[in-house]
Amino acid sequence: MNSDKEMTPRPNGWALLPLGIFFLLYILTFIFTGDLSRMPVSVAFLVASVIAILASRGGKLISRIDLFCKGAANDTIMLMIVIFILAGAFAGTAKAMGAVDATVNMVLYLLPEDMIMASIFVASCFISMAMGTSSGTIAALAPIASGISSMTDIGLPAMLGVVVGGAMFGDNLSFISDTTIIATRTQGCKMQDKFKVNIRIVLPAAILVILIYIFQGQELVDAVAVSAQDVEWLKVIPYLVVLVAALSGVNVITVLTLGVILSGLIGLLAGGFGIWDWTAAVGKGIVSDMGELIIVSLMAGGMFELIRFNGGIDWLILRLTENIRSKRTAEAAIAGLVSFTDLCTANNTIALIICGPIARKISDQFRLDGRKVASLLDTFSCFVQGLIPYGAQLLIASGLAGVNPLEIVPYLYYPFLMGLGAIAAIIFRYPRAYSK
């Protein structure tokens, strides 16, 4: 049994060594090859995880491995893996029965060429708000984005950046998002009040991104001509049903399960495949598309549990809060706290669970407005989560499209601008009514 001393980690900056090794591997890969894709994410995490186990305190090697396994198997990681499995099954089935190609043709037929990027971004925003999850939104839209890219001159990483950006907008503002629920509960404010503050901080960024996509659409898009006869409307139904269910606020697991069943039945009825082809497509979608993602998620959960156990996160918290002198620096400390915690945990829900109570103490001490604090917590957690290449959002997008997550990062316009908007809200004490 662990003692109280073992249960309470002492702040220790060296506990962050595995995370430093992870980033160092990519830096060295870029220096020596110029191609980040030469370093698979799973290999980088394997090396970092081994370092985490070997460098960890906690007694015998078997005890450290047990702690690693405990972190890998926590409830949040397991729920993420269930979503990944269903997302892979849906993507594999939809692709095998022709739903992706049919949906791409429909989008190209219905939308003006120069509005495709802006339209996909807006769709991703609303779907994520309705579902309350960015991961489910990306799982539904990434195959469509990939198909659009293949039929236009829009690069695949750029198209995936559109989807991820919109998904983070909705996740940040959704009333049913885990991050919104935790942020408002820990700060003792109503969801509606948090939304009023939050929308004022991020809406300018969203509008600017839409304008950028419209401009880029005029410069970049040269789509293949598609007529109504080229659209197989029956095969579009699975995606339409999934999107409508998402907009209705149906649970993401239910949405993806419905997508698997419906796309499979339509594939059978339309002669797209046989029953055994369906099972093969489901298996391929899970193993080939999501296998590495599942492995990475497990290793990340174990590694970050060791970092937490050895005091790495507590060390960050201590360093971020030791020099608070004013309301502005108090808000900045809260922003930095949740940002670095999310960077280390790769999960904005966990980051908010860790930082929410600490932020409430800082807020009470410096008499900050709980509504703005909740907004800053949620916004900065989504800002970091939308950019880290080892987070679920980029891993899902890259896994479904077959690209390295780091290739998507330069095209994440909205998360970048959302972060800048949140920083500006701290510096310029905006919105005024909630910054007194």
Looking at this protein, list some descriptive labels.
single chain; 436 residues; mainly alpha; 21 helices; globular; disordered N terminus
Question: What does this protein structure show overall?
Answer:
Helix content is 77%, strand content 0%. The chain is mostly helical and 436 residues long. It has 21 helices and no strands.
**What is the H-and-E element order?**
HHHHHHHHHHHHHHHHHHHHH
Q: End-to-end distance, in Å?
A: 48 Å
Mean pLDDT, rounded to whole units? 83
Major β-sheet annotation: none
Q: Please give the share of residues in helix.
A: over 70%
Rg over alpha carbons: 22 Å
Which stretches of 5+ consecutive residues score pLDDT under 50?
A: 1-6
Estimated share of beta-strand residues:
under 5%
Tell the overall outline.
Answer: globular
Number of strands: 0
Number of helices: 21
Structural class: mainly alpha
Question: What's the structural blueprint in terms of helices and strands?
Answer:
Elements: H1 4-7, H2 17-33, H3 41-55, H4 61-72, H5 75-97, H6 99-110, H7 116-131, H8 134-151, H9 156-173, H10 178-187, H11 191-220, H12 233-247, H13 252-269, H14 275-309, H15 312-321, H16 327-345, H17 348-366, H18 370-385, H19 392-401, H20 405-408, H21 413-427
Helix pairs in contact: 2-3, 3-14, 4-14, 5-8, 5-13, 5-14, 6-8, 6-12, 7-8, 7-9, 7-11, 7-12, 8-9, 8-19, 9-11, 9-18, 9-19, 9-21, 10-17, 10-18, 11-18, 11-21, 12-13, 14-19, 15-16, 16-17, 16-18, 17-18, 18-21
